[in-house]
Amino acid sequence: MLIVNGEKIAGTSAKFEKNALTAVKRATFFFEDHVKEVQMAINHYYINRILIIGTSDKMTRIIASRLNLGNIQHYFHVEDIRTSSEIKIAQFVRKTEGKHIIPIPYKQVDPSLFKKIILKGWEIFTPKRERIGETTIVHPDFHRSSIIIHKKVYKDLVKIICSGYREIEDCKSAQLILNGLPVLNVSITIRQPIRSNLIELSEKLQSNIRSYFLTHLNIELYSINLYLQLSKKAESLTVK
């Protein structure tokens, strides 16, 4: 699909396809009619620079070759403009919820071509804050399945981790915020009397939670905010 100044000019997004195989073929310009349509549009608009978006260097080279664009002059990798945390949360949302982003305005998307349109995405600006387009979040037909993770699951995971600490009486709440950078807010109750350094305890707990979420959910938490509260009932000390 060819996009000029934030508007779809020619071609078709791979997200419109009914299955993953044809989606890959569409994305790499396997179909001759697709190639000719986009090539004609490129010549008509006298485009002298093109940003090719692909999932790998190999894919972008294939696209450049199919469209007879010549050698690629420079590669921009997602790691150069997005943090590891942002990349992992995007992968997590795509795998569990089936959400995909297409870089065209909401009004240009035909709802009948998708299982459902999730919502309008966000506006795209240049570094000089000049608006150049917008995105739309969709659920393509070829991504037929999704996993719904109840918010209680995150609390249960944190409670399991907290149960390994003698100093922690209870994990009262655990809220994972996935909008933007992933943030986890945890509220815990500390046993009295306090027998440990609370700063060291908090840092160790944060480290364990971060490691657990990365290992088991592939979510790299940007921030773990701990809210500590002392238990109302103090434990009795054994006197020897």
Overview of the molecule:
- This protein is an alpha+beta fold and 240 residues long.
- It folds into two domains: 2-139, no CATH class; 151-234, 2-Layer Sandwich (Alpha-Beta Plaits).
- Helix content is 34%, strand content 25%.
- The chain has a three-stranded antiparallel sheet with strand order 3-5-4, with no helix packed on it.
- The protein starts with a strand and ends in a 6-residue tail after the last strand.
Provide the helix percentage. Answer: 25-40%
Could you state the order of secondary-structure elements as H and E? Answer: EEHHHHHEEEHEEHE
Strand order of the largest sheet: 3-5-4
Mean pLDDT: 81
Largest sheet: 3 strands, antiparallel
Give the overall shape: elongated
Structural class, from secondary structure content? alpha+beta
Strand content is 25-35%
Write out key terms for the chains shown.
7 helices; 3-stranded mixed sheet; alpha+beta; disordered C terminus; 3-stranded antiparallel sheet; Alpha-Beta Plaits; elongated; 240 residues
Quick structural gist:
This protein is α+β, with helices and mostly antiparallel strands.
Layout: helices, strands, pairs:
Layout: E1 2-4, E2 7-10, H1 20-27, H2 32-44, H3 57-66, H4 78-81, H5 84-97, E3 100-102, E4 116-125, E5 131-139, H6 151-162, E6 168-177, E7 183-192, H7 198-217, E8 223-234
Parallel strand pairs: 7-8
Antiparallel strand pairs: 1-2, 3-5, 4-5, 6-7
